[in-house]
Structure of Ferric iron reductase:
Amino acid sequence: MPGVLTETALLSAAALRLERVHDTFGFATTVDDAATVDRPGPTGSTTHGGWTRLTDAITEPRTVQGWLGRIARATGGHRNVAASYLVLRLTGCVATPLIAAYLLEERGLPLDPPTTYVHAEHDQFDVLALTGGRIDDDVDAGAVALRLHRVLAPVIDTVAANAPYGVRTMWSSVADRLGGPTVLAASLGGLDPSTAWRRTQDVVDRLTDLGAPIRRRPRLVEVPWSGGLAVTSVKGTCCLKYVEHDLRPRDAAHSPAAFCGGCPYVDDGVRVAKRRAALERRPS
């Protein structure tokens, strides 16, 4: 009908709106779109040119095993670190636009495995492509959780079968990985940080209802600075970055830079001071 947008056009419009807020909130709507930024698109339905359809990641263990092996080689052969990074990075790729759409627009993106692709560049997942499906209006936390669980649960099970890293720990990392985009969406979208945080924790609650054994969660930390009061998120579960540097958790006290910015082992005073300094350096 004239004047009625197709589902593809609605997806493209949503991608542009979200990307204008922050580039990590955007996504491709066809694999050709993603290829225009020097990334080749897939041929057929399996891995090609760095692209993988989520159906294949869910149904073919060798797909996840390949990802795990690639990341392990990049982390000095530490398969537990590789498992941690794989889950965190894949969650970030698929969940960041999903959480942004949920918080900023109260819409649910169609994370349907047959029409959803992720692009792996070396040991990172750098682009999400949603090539079909319908955007849902007035989506609730349960719908967002269901989309995430359907994609991540089988991947986590495959990783657990191929690396010395527990299912509970990986699901706790999923909860952690939702914290960053929540804080960013609240900051850039003019949302109340506490309200946005509660809404994302509602998603985590629904994940546990679906059977995700999340035992630790991220938390908000306030950062006072000259422009007011900002917030940052702190993980509940360590990502094991320190293992790459042959360190131990206790080394966070004197070598915090060797740990990730949201590491639970880093003292909050150090974290707040670093974040405050970054905020004060920003142009007004």
